[in-house]
Amino acid sequence: MNKINKYKKRIKATLLKTSFFVLPMLVIASCATDDTQTVARFTDLVMQDEFDTNGALDSSIWDFNIGNGENGWGNNELQYYTNRSENAVVQNGILIMTANKESFQGSDYTSARIITKGKFEQAYGRFEARIRLPYGQGLWPAFWLLGADIDEVGWPQCGEIDIMENRGQEPTLINGTVHGPGYSAGESISKSYELTNDRFDTGFHIFGIEWGPEYINYYVDDVLYNQITPDDVTGEWVYDHPFFIIINMAVGGDYVGAPNGETVFPQTMLVDYVRVYKNNLID
User: Fold this and answer.
1) Active site residue 160
2) Out of 77, 121, 128, 165, which one is annotated catalytic?
């Protein structure tokens, strides 16, 4: 019996035994893209950073990407990523990521990009973070995952899951996206979510995915707004192996364009916590 069939049978058995949890479990089992459904509640917390210790990031969880990357990290981004406290520091239970307009190592902006590669990588489960976004033309905050086999197979074969990315000039909109072989960059599979009577830069919101062998469900707070399955992609489904976490705030790039005269610096992206849960229905 293959792993997916075992997974489906275990879901069915769980539904029969726990009728009072039918609604959240249906999010996992059927994953119908219905905005009235709520977040399934995984309870096996396997990684968390609550940012409770002031100062530097927890080096047992996070590393920094440093520099301006190749071709602006592949996107013509304008910032230089550093590991300085001016760009990333923990204060009062919050990770503060700051984009500054300054001349540094040949770039006109600095910011931060943190990753769990080699320290925490997982396939499936719930990945979530509570974040307040920045605002301004040319800002590009993101919370996303990359396949841990990227060094062996390259991108996009490794797979990319963008849990949240935002154009700073669109404070009410975020996007949830996957990139894979045959559907990367401008051909990626994506859907947007828009706040009503609110903005992502004026308060914290929870951005998350719930991920299983045949689906990736996207949430903002308790709203399921997108589902991607193997039937939705135009190439190979490559979301069957461990991925690592990236949180960054880019400045400029193909996705957002450059800052303009109305973009105010410094800009901050505030992260209250990052939590990852294991899906107990999967071996």
Assistant:
1) yes
2) 165
